[in-house]
Amino acid sequence: MTDTKPDTPAEFEANLEALEGLVARMESGELGLEQSLTEFQQGMELVRRCQTALDDAQRRIEALSADSGDSAPASDDPPERTNVPAAGASNTTDPDVPF
Question: Is 0.70 surpassed by the pTM of this model?
Answer without folding.
Answer: no
